[in-house]
Amino acid sequence: MSDVVRDELRLTGTKVSCGIGRCGACAVIMDGRLVNSCLVMAYQAEGTAIRTIEGVATKDDLDPIQQAFLDEGGFQCGYCTPGMVMAVKALLLEKPNPTDEEIAEGLSGNLCRCTGYAGIIRAVRRASNRVYVQKD
Fold first, then answer.
1. Among 39, 64, 65, 119, which residue is least crowded by beta carbons within 10 Å?
2. What letter would DSSP give residue 78?
3. Distance between CA 5 and CA 37 in Å, rounded?
4. Res 136: pLDDT
5. Burial track 100-131 (b if 16+ CB lie within 10 A, e otherwise)
6. CATH number of the domain at 2-135, out of 3.40.605.10, 1.25.40.80, 1.10.150.120, 3.30.460.80?
7. Interatomic CA distance for residues 41 and 94, integer angstroms
8. Burial, 77: exposed, middle or buried (Cβ in 10 Å; 0-12, 13-18, 19+)?
């Protein structure tokens, strides 16, 4: 599916790195669940709702998760960031105020080779506070 998303639909925010489902760079939300698009065959996605990084922000505003990544320096080269944002989005949709253990579990399928994760974890905490406050 990642080839269709990137090459045919031209939604190139979804990255492909390992191609075997270990890095999370290609993560998208399919029918409300986080999936590695490199492991989903195109026919398996037929009739499903797919949300890529391009569908996270609105026309006028970044999603609170994206803003938190900017505010906390949760990226360096940025290659893994779309997959990380999608993983955080899926986590916060399920658990708006996750514990540190739930954050670690929610990010466990995503690899970052640049940042050391401290900024990413701070970004998740900041985003959960924003998302949680917005839902009240």
1. 39
2. -
3. 9
4. 37
5. eeebeebbebbbbeebebebbbbbbbbbbebb
6. 1.10.150.120
7. 25
8. exposed
Listing DSSP states for 39-69 in one string gives GS-HHHHTTS-EE-GGGTS-SSS--HHHHHH
Residue identified by tokens 């690899």 is 111
Q: Find tokens 């925010």 and name the residue.
A: 13
- Mean pLDDT by runs of 10 across the 136 residues of the chain is 95 95 97 97 96 95 95 92 97 94 96 89 91 50
> Which residues on neighbouring strands pair with residue 34, listed in sequence order?
29
Token pair recorded at residue 49: 């709702």
Q: With beta carbons less than 8 A apart as the criterion, state whether 70 and 103 touch.
A: no
